[in-house]
Amino acid sequence: MQSAKKKLVIKVTAGAEAPERCSQAFTVAAVAAASGVEVSLWLTGESAWFALPGRAAEFELPHAAPLQDLLESVTASGTITLCTQCAARRDITEADVLEGVRIAGAQVFVSEVMADDARSLVY
User: What does the alpha-carbon distance between residue 39 and residue 54 come to, in Å, rounded to a whole number?
Assistant: First the structure.
């Protein structure tokens, strides 16, 4: 009997102001996605800016994989969600975000992390 596929929900709150923490979240998400894990990456706080075209390409951290590459890896096989309130505080709308990024709120986040097959991390 096969075991149910696990889902990893990652909430990243850090952006360019905390580059190592930010990069860690994206790296873990990309590695999990590449390993076949179902990934849901939530962009909250300052990481909300990475939902916009070109923003991940501007991010730099020595000895780290390019954030743009990590984001594309997660987008290819996982879900990327921009927090509703975080988007509103930054005047970001659905028309502004990268293709494949959804905007959703706390109710959806809680539903994902409370699922029996889910594990979660917060950065």
Answer: 22
